[in-house]
Amino acid sequence: MLDRRWWLHSVLLFLVLPWVHFSGHSCLQGHLGKTLGGLLGPLPGWAGNIPAVLWLTTLALILGHSQRFRKPEGALQLGNLALHVFFVVIGIWSRVSEIIAVGAGVFPYTVVVVGLHGLFVYGLGRALKFDVGSLSVASQAAVGGP
Description:
The structure is a single chain. By secondary structure, this protein is mostly helical. The protein has 2 domains: 93 residues, no CATH class; 52 residues, no CATH class. 70% of the residues lie in helices and 0% in strands. The protein contains 6 helices and no strands. Helix 1 crosses helix 4, helix 2 crosses helix 3 and helix 5 packs antiparallel against helix 6. The longest helix has 32 residues. It starts with a helix and ends with a helix.
């Protein structure tokens, strides 16, 4: 039986997806960028020339290292939600017909590359006596991305 967190995760995903534009940018991200850009406009000299994404990243790093935000409740669920939205935004431009047309040539190459990767990671990991769980997480991070 699924617990309440997964139900809440699905509901939040359903509520956030309408905020995603087909252009690949979320409304919230656009509003944050415009607001921050408006606040940074009057800064003198070099500070006004720094892109808003760097200011947002700096702010996120500062807040992330403060005691108040060290271990927030629901951070895992929010991270999963953000990854789902990321995958939706990436995949929203995909056309199934193009994926099928290109996939026939890419699939054998992918099988070879991922197979060699698996042999290398698990072979070297076994020789160095790493546990399979750690090797699997490392492999997924290398092949699957975020």
